[in-house]
Amino acid sequence: MHRSRIAGFTLIELLIVIIIIGILAAIAIPAFNSTKGKAYSASHKTDLRNLATAEEAYFFQANVYTDNLSDLNFTKTQGVTITFGEATASGWSATATRPLAIPATCALYVGNVTPVAPATTESQITCQ
Fold first, then answer.
1. Closest Cα partner for 127 from 110, 109, 104?
2. CA dihedral sign, ordered 66, 68, 71, 75
3. Which has the closest alpha carbon to 51: 37, 65, 62?
4. Which residues lie across from 91 on neighbouring strands?
5. What is the pTM of this model?
6. Given this model, what pLDDT does residue 4 score?
């Protein structure tokens, strides 16, 4: 009696492949979310750099810094919230936040003003 084998996959082989795909997906999805959060954080830093440029341009014309975004030639990234700590003739401070960003908050201060957390060094963007 000669038995011929039918080509195809067994149920066990298919289950093993599905389990392997599930394990790979479980590893890849958190890594993707982390990458997305870091991209959001990059928008914080970019907005704070652009804000610093706009503040200096405003200071050049008015001899004072402003905490009014509409006075500046500045457009923030959609989803980012800019909050000023203070703005005087001697300096300014601001934070940028965005939900789901990793880290969630970045701050910058320039001049003789009270630093806003997490900023600790003048003119250096710090995030936490």
1. 104
2. positive
3. 65
4. 111
5. 0.75
6. 64
Helix residue spans in the chain (DSSP H): 11-62
CB 38 within 8 A of CB 102: yes
**Confidence at residue 2, expressed as pLDDT on a 0 to 100 scale:** 65
Q: What is the pLDDT of residue 1?
A: 61
Q: By the 8 A CB rule, do 84 and 76 touch?
A: no
**How far is 88 from 77, CA to CA, in rounded Å?**
25
Closest CA to 95 of 62, 63, 53, 67: 67
Angle ∠(75,79,81) on CA atoms, nearest 5? 70
- Side-chain half-sphere of 28: how many Cα atoms within 13 Å? 6
**H or E element that contains 107:** strand 105-111
- Tell me the domain boundaries of the chain: 12-127
Burial of 1 (0-12, 13-18, 19+ CB in 10 A): exposed
List per-block mean pLDDT (blocks of 10 residues) for the chain, which spans 128 residues: 73 94 89 79 91 94 93 90 93 91 90 93 93
